[in-house]
Amino acid sequence: MNLKIGVIKGDGIGPEIVTEAMKVLDKVGEVYGHTMDYDQLLMGGASIDVHGVPLTDDTIRRAKDCDAVLMGSIGGDAKTSPWYQLEPDKRPEAGLLKIRKALNLFANLRPAVLYEELKGACPLKEEITEGGFDMMIMRELTGGLYFGERKTVEENGVMTAYDSLTYNENEIRRIAKRAFDIAMKRRRKVTSVDKANVLDSSRLWRKVVEKVAGDYPEVTLEHMLVDNCAMQLVKDPKQFDVILTENMFGDILSDEASMVTGSIGMLASASLNETKFGLYEPSGGSAPDIAGKGIANPIATILSAAMMLRFSFDLDAEADAIEKAVAEVLREGWRTIDIMSEGKNQVGTEKMGDLIAGHIA
Ligand code: NAD
Ligand code: IPM
Ligand code: MN
């Protein structure tokens, strides 16, 4: 099979971690007889440096021409990078939001799984993580605060800034359906997270989710307020199967969930629309503090590539092979610094990629 994959290496650690994911994909291609047809695309700071804007129409068009896009992460250090001297809509993050919207990537799947081997890197007590946990965060990605009206005005000599949080029932329904469909293939439980005790948008969210749940009698639906959810994630992460939530809450809760798996460097993600197309990227950022040092954890990006093979190409055996290779390498005791614990062997980004590619059989 020929796989047409757009590649956005991005900024900071982006190029380092994407290079390792491509190495693993190339090995999968070799072993399973696929050709990887990569189209290197620019976005974020790297695009600003060349084109003056974080995302060009050419990048959008070429991304649409691909079957899937693999991405590192974009952005830089807001204090020191010249990108942050630009107007907000010209900064790296604006490119990411624009491509999500342009490709209608409304469903963001972030699987938080505690690998048995990584218990030592998890900051929670052993009695809490006994038996591991495996949850899927379904984050709505093209609505809410991120895409609402925004302005800053001066009124009577006082600066006031507005960000509006808007959802219509169609936007809620399509992400809810996706969450229930996924729950049907898992442990059949959906926890819908909102702030319905305060926000109108959350009250509509709850109503629509309840209605969608009517079509899935086998799935247990539970509602949880977001502040409680933040607490429950560290108190008892095992209770969660699918967490369904709006854009901003999902952003925050997924970083929290990543840490209980050991590190943000472990959390993969897939951003999907109604077709087989998807954008696959680690959930974490460009990590300017460690960029260029060769120590970033490439596993989230490698696992994102596995999600790509599964969702966009229906290559389940190949995706399984990558996930198995990651587990084996961890079992053998190899660790990047973010997941390091006593008695394990510390390796850098490149070596971790080599080891995982080497385990693809
Ligand atoms: P970050 O996720 O980049 O970093 C937070 C911490 O996690 C840092 O200490 C970093 O070293 C560590 N970390 C992140 N990924 C790691 C990995 N793979 N291996 C080891 N350690 C890792 O968050 P931040 O510092 O708040 O943001 C930095 C920049 O990244 C900002 O410009 C932000 O907008 C951007 N960002 C981009 C994306 C994306 O492209 N999807 C996601 C989040 C943040
Ligand atoms: C993420 C990131 C982005 C988000 C930023 C960089 C705009 O934090 O993908 O989680 O908030 O969605
Ligand atoms: Mn985030």
UniProtKB/TrEMBL annotation:
Isopropylmalate dehydrogenase-like domain span: 4-356
Name the UniProt record assigns to this protein: 3-isopropylmalate dehydrogenase
Record: residues binding NAD(+): 285-297
Species the sequence originates in: Faecalicatena fissicatena
Family to which the UniProt record says this protein belongs: Belongs to the isocitrate and isopropylmalate dehydrogenases family. LeuB type 1 subfamily.
Enzyme category, top tier: oxidoreductase
The protein's role, per its UniProt record: Catalyzes the oxidation of 3-carboxy-2-hydroxy-4-methylpentanoate (3-isopropylmalate) to 3-carboxy-4-methyl-2-oxopentanoate. The product decarboxylates to 4-methyl-2 oxopentanoate.
Top-level taxon: Bacteria
Molecular function via GO: 3-isopropylmalate dehydrogenase activity
The gene coding this protein: leuB
